[in-house]
Amino acid sequence: MKSFIIFLVILGITFGLANAMVSDNGYVLISYNTATFESTLWGLFLLIGLAIGAVWLVWIILKLIFGITGFIYPMTPTAKERQARKMTTRGFVEFTQGHWKKAERMLSQAADYGSSPLLNYLAAARAAHENGDLEASAEYLRRADHKEPGAELAIGITQAQLQLASGQLEQALATLTKLHKQVPRHAYVLKMLKQSYSRLNDWQSLAALLPKLKKQKVVSDEEFRTIELQCFEALFKQAFNNGRSFTSLDQRIKPAAQVWNSLSSSQKRHSAMIYRYGKCLTDLGAEDKAEALLRDNLNKHYSSDIVLLYGKIKGKDLSKQLHFAEAMLNERPNDADLLLTLGRLALRNELWGKAREYFEASLRLSKRIDTYNELGRLLAHMEDHESSSLFFQEGLRLAAGSVVDLPLPGSHTRL
Q1: Is 288 helix (H, G, I), strand (E, B) or coil?
Q2: What digits encode the pLDDT tens for the residues 23-46?
Q3: Which range has the worst mean pLDDT, 73-77, 256-260, 361-365?
Q4: CA 228, 231, 233 angle in degrees (round to 5)?
């Protein structure tokens, strides 16, 4: 119905115009200087209509030409941005497929005209790095910094990641140190700093970083404990190497004491730290100091490593050392490690029978190579060679593990 009404209106207008054209053609005269133009009114309207149509046709043709040209080489800002978006998408597709050279080319070209040059340049830098072109990778990062001067953190993190991946540890550390000053609580920067220090064996710097790693929860509690022990184990080894060349005992143990003093109060209560410090002092010849350290901590922070080390140390007062260890036996009567330590301390006090009892009691609880060897050595000096040989054989069998208990020739056998 609506369409029919519109048709009637158009038909009425057409008849009205036709009637006006027949009844009165009109007359138009346009004069300018010596030139004149004469026409009927309706002729002028027709001419204007044709001119408008011609302009419209030229506009359509030009639009088509520029459209085709823009597809090949974008000329307008809008066309360039549209083309950049397409190149970005294709570049990331190539990147995920491992086509580094194509990805680098597309992403870098898209960065020049797209609306996200930072993202494109960072991805192009990664692609160039994967392709082994470190110089190009660095150049893309410089371009990213030039395009986005406020994105130092993102650019710096990417740069540090690429430097760590390519083994440029010193450069990575310099980059991360600068970033750490800008954002001291940034978890990922701290994590990469941890990696840098660890790979550079810079244990002192890593030790100083440990509180921040814990506070910012950069690593899990279990990983933190592992890193902490690894770090201070390395520091005590360094302290031993630095101190062993000195002739004075005070000078020898000074590096180890510095490491110990750098520990927090909670770290000093850790049995592994106590053991490492005590072992370092023992290896440096400061057994008196090591014995005092272990004696002060054994009751509060007992561990197998500490009690076994205590049995190998020769303190100032051997009798007092033995009585202290025997006092612990009241609370730990079935501790094989403590009994082994008591046997060794009894040997130092030349209490042969007591030492044998302690070693045998330890073996009843746990079969240890060390205990077999200690007992075999003791019995050999007590001229019980038959029993000594049996204990040594048991120790060897336990050490070998894979030795099968096969028949062996007797003493009467002739070869």
Answers
A1: helix
A2: 666 666 677 667 776 667 666 666
A3: 73-77
A4: 105
Determine the Cα–Cα distance for residues 126 and 132; give it in Å rounded to an integer.
10
Closest listed residue to residue 107, CA positions, set 155, 63, 141? 141
Structure tokens at 194: 């941890």
Beta-carbon contacts of 36 under 8 Å, excluding residues fewer than 6 positions away, are 29, 30
Q: At 280, list the tokens.
A: 């370092």
Closest CA to 378 of 388, 365, 386, 368: 388
Regarding predicted confidence, which is higher, 237 or 115?
Answer: 237
- Which is it for the CA torsion 16, 22, 23, 26, positive or negative? positive
Q: Six-digit token pair at 107?
A: 């992403």
Provide the terminal-to-terminal Cα distance of the chain, rounded to the nearest Å: 126
Supply φ then ψ for residue 334, to 5 degrees.
-115, 35
At 206, list the tokens: 């890593």
Closest C-alpha among 294, 201, 278, 293 to residue 240: 278
- H/E stretch holding 31: strand 28-32
Q: SS3 of 251, please?
A: helix
Nearest CA-CA partner of 106 in 120, 116, 126: 120
- Chain centroid to CA 196: 9
Provide the token pair at 283: 């290896």
- List alpha helices for 220-303, DSSP H: 221-243, 249-261, 265-268, 271-283, 287-298
